[in-house]
Amino acid sequence: MSRSARHFLIFAAGALVCLAFWFGHRHPDGMWRLSMGTAYASLALLAASLAIGPWNLLRRQPNPVSGYLRRDVGIWAGVFGIAHVVFGLQVHFVGRMWLYFVPAPGTSYRLPVRIDPFGLANWTGLFATLVLVLLLALSNDASLKKLGRDRWKSLQRWNYAGAILVVVHGALYQVIEKRGLVLVGACLVIVGVAAALQLAGYRETRHKRLGRVR
Q1: pTM (2 decimals)?
Q2: How many angstroms from the chain centroid is the CA of residue 211?
Q3: 140-163 b/e with 16+ CB inside 10 Å = b?
Q4: Boundaries of domain holding 9
Q5: What is the domain count for the chain?
């Protein structure tokens, strides 16, 4: 399969998730549906990008430093994630986006930034977005060549921190908005499968290392 065809298929998969939210959810706010669709598309693709490496290890397949499949899935995870940020910032405070992160004037909040569950959800989302932007900037051969294998890989490992931030962000919003069992369950399945494969991959790598030592 050519990379162009693979990009189209990955984009189509994410777009189908967005369409499912647009036509399948009864929420009256179109921006909310776009925000949720892009959020779940990004989450699923991010989980898939993290699962590809461990899956290769478990199948005894080559696991390159920067495989094109993992890179392409990660690119679209970042694109849908950034789209989620753009749509999500239009849901609660249209024209006053700073209120996602700082308290409104005149409120009795003592700190200059919001650290309540809503604020923490948005701050973790912001930092996750910065990680996604970093990973998008690294997702090309020019960056790998310029930085070198080791430095590129050390920066690319921020995807794990980004994934944790995404999970915390999503979990907080599940609670804040009191989402239904279907949405909560879908999130748990996606995160659970990725975490299980990561753990299995870690165990496989550790087993190989111990075998070499012996």
Answers
A1: 0.88
A2: 34
A3: eeeebeeeeeeebeeebebbeebb
A4: 3-213
A5: 1
